[in-house]
Amino acid sequence: MEDILAAEVVVIDMQNTRTAGAVARLRSALGATQSDVAKKAGVDQSRLSRVETGEVVAPDEIRRVLEALATLGSKEAVDFLRFMDREWRFIEPPSYWNPERASLEIAEETLEKIEAFLGDEEQPWPLRRQLARRKGDLLRASGFLTRLKHNIAFIGDIGVGKSTAISFIFDLLVPAKAEDRNINRPVLETGAGGTTICEVHIESGPEFGLSVTAMDAADLTDLVADFCAAKWAMAHRKEGDKAETPQVSREVERAIRNMSGLVRKRTMVDGKPQYSDPIHEVIADCKGEDEFRARVLGIMKLDERTTTEIWYESGTRKYPSEWMRETFRAVNNGRMSDVPMPRSIGLIVPDFGKSFGEFEITVVDTKGVEDVAVREDLDHRLKDPRTAVVLCCRFESAPDTTSQALLQHMKQTFSERFDTGKIAILSLPRSGEALEVNSDTGERVLNEEEGYALKGEEVTNKLNSQDLSDVPVFFFNVESDTAGQVRADLFGQLSRMRETVSERLFDLCDAATEIIENHEKHAVTAAIEEVARRLNTFLRGNGKLGARERHAYEEVLSTVRGVRYASTLWAATRRNGEYYGLNIVHQIGVGAARDARLRSRDWFTKIEGHVNELKADEDLVLAKHSVDQIGAVAEASRRSFLDGAQRIAMEIYREPLTQDPVWNDCASEWGKGPGFKNRIEEHLSNWFDNTRPDLKETLDERLNALWERTVVVPLMQLTEEHEPEPEGSVENG
User: Fold this and answer.
1) Per residue in 148-187, pLDDT tens?
2) CA distance 464 to 666
3) Could you give phi then psi for residue 363, rounded to 5 degrees?
4) Cα(first)–Cα(last) distance of the chain, in Å?
5) Among residues 9, 275, 342, 408, which is most buried (max CB within 10 A)?
6) Other C-beta atoms within 10 Å of 479: how many?
7) Rounded CA gap, 624 and 629, in Å?
């Protein structure tokens, strides 16, 4: 009991703190001085100042100040007082400035009505169960809208200009006078590709700083092993040897060289630069690759690299943005002796994202796509309902191969819609490119706006031809366009994401209200029971999952064939198939989800047709919301089934595949001449078909069980309207 009371006190204190913080905002909007408000409220001006900073959170004093603001003419203060007095029993109290506050207030009122209805045990079970389900759906939708935290993830090929665009869009720039050219002002490190070593998160915080999430020791050891293997192979390469030479990415090599002090030295000879590489000396002093690797790891002094937070100090006499740029580049390139190799870097900027109003925005600069686009880290962003994804591409190649691959992946793997604000394409033209577009007459466009319009139409037509419609296309030239417009476009994407949920919330409220208002009509109950009976008949005749259409591992073999750089595949073979740039287990999951979509496609078409038949039946008009519920449950079930298929396939294959000696065979294929990818494909194909063919059947059994659990059972529950639903099933569904 004491714990519960303590928790309630904490919640109340947080609410009072948020309320106190609103006072300054309301006073500023009114244009009143602290002196005027303090006098009207009958408090000392210093006391009011402490209220506005949150030092004083006494409810009585806060109310007096708000009443004073209302008296002075603040209509918002009047509304805020009403908001303070509202009791939130079901939904977590939202911010007063939450864009969907009105929707949440309606949802709270609807939940109160539902609770009262459910408390009357005399009401018929069909209606009570309908409302119980609406309650669960309302709580989930409200929970999404109450939170104001969102991510905007930028995804694109290396060197496409993501980091530069992010810097200009979100004003992450050093002062203009610090650089002779505007294009050189970004805080984020930019270049022609191979620049940023990891994912970067930019978010708001109390002061300027950087935070580092260290790379796991095992992953770092693997990277160093790759680096050493590549350098050892190069050093021992025989003249005329045509075998492939392994290599690591430029950003990884740069960081390892800096962390180990093995940086190439440049000297000028006859006016030309020449480089000497200290790695050659270390290799010459080692008896084998293992010793070389151990030497490199040793001089990196990993145990001394424990600093994960760095904060700006005004004593540096630099602009915060200049300090942040220098510090970020030092961390990104491994030049700080006490900072570990980063798995992700966080840039903390005061008031970051304030142009997005009430939203708390984290911008994510993902690691550039260099080879395989369907990566596990990018999948997390594509699936996260709170993340808007921006696919960046060059102007002339939009929509580029990576953008199209990821859009097809979203459609084929988890049936994503593109009209919800989730996804957008951002084309990044360079100076003069938009002016080189030709009109229908063959003449050049008159201005960049016309070039953007024609290019946008071209991109849209190309996407439509692949059945990828409703993807918005934006343009941003960092040298000539204003950042305000593209920020507004991205804000619109976030707003659309929330509007999609808000529209669903209103539909649920309308459905619940209609049921409550018509509960005395026996015809309503009869219509609901008839809908349930017909759905039961449909499910009993159409309950089976379709036959397998393609093996999950076919996605793996297809991906291996399509790998652009042999080094990507080489790195994967050295990690038992689990490499961030090519995760074989993840690809199996993607293949399972795509097969699950194919084999369930006809079934979901049938259930959609069944729902349309029910809607067209005039005798079932009073059960309209019951019919809508079937469609909503079917759609939610589809998502659960596809996501579960991917997860189960990865679970089934991960341990058998990653611990099998097949990877030793695969890794040994490197250096045997052309055809490395083909040989890896043969090894893996043989493993899937002959070494562990039993896993195919295990997956099939698990998918059929998943189908029953995530699709058939939830819909079958809608047919059981004559008795109470098992306790907890509605909330958990």
Assistant:
1) 999 999 999 999 999 999 999 999 999 988 777 888 899 9
2) 40
3) -95, 130
4) 30
5) 342
6) 13
7) 9
